[in-house]
């Protein structure tokens, strides 16, 4: 096709794939939860909470690397017509309601660390809203996209049925209302229902990626930091109009875009290989800027992971013998914290094991998927340190059994979470001990 710089097309498609990848990962979840009523993960549409007071188990597959310390509360908001108000009760435990934009960047946080444990009402406003903050609202979270989501976490204090029911009662006090319902004002005119692209797993990898991205960009005003990539995508027909049609592309242009998709994927995979902690990959737009590659690492490593000041995540991609990833088929492992190396966060810590490549919890005979400072019966070493035993078969000895984190008979990863980490963790002074091959 005369006049088309196919190298430029390829480069734009590669950058566009990296830029849009977190949006499509987010859409995968949003489509199941807020758009498709036939999906068992459906929360009821936009503007409603769906709570899960039980701890996560292997059958929970909404997101990768789930945790079972803080059961989830999901919601999705459409901010086109008017803002929404989230109301929370008095709290006696750690919780956080983190609201995120379409590209998974955080809008802001309502929770124990940021807004305290008292009751309050908080406004979630879209990018085009410039109204007056109503009386009674304790704060405003201003989104950059018209659609936002929230994966809320509330601490489960124990595994007894009474603990679960207590948590359920707290979650049910989280309340969502349109601003007009909160203030008693007139209800604004309704906005048209979008024609939502049906999610297919192939949408994240083939040329249809740009069809879905074109639709999503219609809810995402151009920001100064992304103006260049948005203009170059628009030149390829991905302009937020929702009309991009791969069938209309010239064969050589389509081929160049498909090559760009592959190049973008390779770029992200290479970047992910060197990311071992959550530092710098989750946060607000002010914290992350427009580093699309970093945002993509976060979306793949742990979609909707919290920023380090809220919850620090670390893990092991290689064991002490250089095996990448760690593999419990025929190997036993230990993780040893010395007495002065024990995690000491403001709230609590845990270590959770996931099978690979799915990055989901794995069935085991004792129904233990994580271990930490709230685990009943945990046994410390005589010198005050702590040794965890990560292996497939139940270990011998009472201390080893008490401190056992069951692993699959194959590859796995372990992620440690600290809620409210201390300064030494955030500045890198504190370091994870090795995942040591036993024997």
From TrEMBL:
Occurrences of domain DUF1254 (ranges): 47-178
SUPFAM superfamilies: VPA0735-like (SSF160935)
Cited Pfam families: DUF1214, DUF1254
Domain of life of the native organism: Bacteria
Signal peptide feature range: none
Boundaries of every DUF1214 domain copy: 317-422
InterPro entries in the cross-refs: DUF1214, DUF1214_C_sf, DUF1254, DUF1254_sf
Full protein name: DUF1254 domain-containing protein
